[in-house]
Amino acid sequence: MIFYMCIFFSELLILCSRFRVSYITLAMVISA
């Protein structure tokens, strides 16, 4: 059970970091 929770949280972190990167690039495009 804990194993699946770890997988779920790691996937969530990967998704969050990916969205954060896309937001940063979007902000750079808007400011440039």
Automatic annotation (TrEMBL):
Name this protein carries in UniProt: Uncharacterized protein
Lineage: Eukaryota, Viridiplantae, Streptophyta, Embryophyta, Tracheophyta
